[in-house]
Amino acid sequence: MSKTGRKVTRLTKNRTSEGEAAFSRSGRTIVFVRGSRSRAEIWTMSASGKRKRRLTRDSIADASPSWSPNGKLIVFRSSRARQLDGTPNLDIWVMNANGSGKRRLTTHDASDDDPVFSPDGTKIAYRSFANGQSHIVVMNADGTGETRLMNAPGASDPDWSPDGRRIVFQSLRDGNPEIYVMNADGRNQRRLTRTRSAAERLPVFSPSGLEIAFERNYPRRGSDVYVMRSNGKRVRRLTRFRGYDGRPDWQPIRR
User: Fold this and answer.
1) Biggest alpha carbon distance in the chain?
2) What angle do CA 105, 106, 110 make, to 5 degrees?
3) Is residue 208 one of the residues assigned to a domain?
């Protein structure tokens, strides 16, 4: 859809659940997930919904895909370690954009999810859950040098600002799913939303860094996509559908 919420275009027509779509930096390709929570696969397609290609073929759940800035790699989370060594946790993996060369990046005793490359491609931010605590972690793109930025109830869904200086994320630290932003080193954490009657999550910076799109869910009304300024002001609703509209992403500006 357009950034005003108009011109909504359906890209897939499949009886199987599809979602978690993310644009490549070029804006020409979309990676997405098809399947259920227990068995999901990663696919790609053109921005027009054509040329669909399946990248993973497993009897487990591969999900939360995200592109590297140069479009050569896709980072994702997977439970495939259960087939390798019986580990029950989710781990962060990376593969080439054609589905080859799958490599496991995290191996510790935690469930890791929501990976996203930094704008320069040298880092990956992700959510790690262990011992009842959620953490936002940053590591080098090869899986080394893990640094825990913060821990808070429900901390998840990190996304980098285009200049790599900030990370926006979701947290339950104040008792309700709200959106926060912090410096890329974990300092200066600030709350952006304050909507007690709804859950706000899955924030993502616009290509300009001036806006943040996110999902807002009201009980009994469903989820819709909203946009706000990167300081949390001027919130506006983009979709109005009784079902589920959520997990937004921006199409990068083609130059």
Assistant:
1) 49
2) 160
3) no
Instruction: Write out the H or E segment, with its range, that includes residue 167.
Output: strand 166-171
* Mean of all residue pLDDT scores within the chain: 91
d(CA 76, CA 54): 14
Residue linked to tokens 């009980």? 219
Contact call for residues 182 and 192 (beta carbons, < 8 A) = no
Q: What is the CATH number of the domain that holds 31?
A: 2.120.10.30
pTM: 0.93
- Kindly state the average pLDDT of the residues 229-254: 88
pLDDT at residue 153, as a whole number? 86
- The amino acid present at 135, given as its one-letter code, is H
Looking at residue 250, the DSSP 8-state letter turns out to be P
Return the higher-pLDDT residue of 41 and 2: 41
Task: Judge whether 150 and 189 are in contact, CB under 8 Å.
Answer: yes
What residues make up the domain containing 165? 18-194
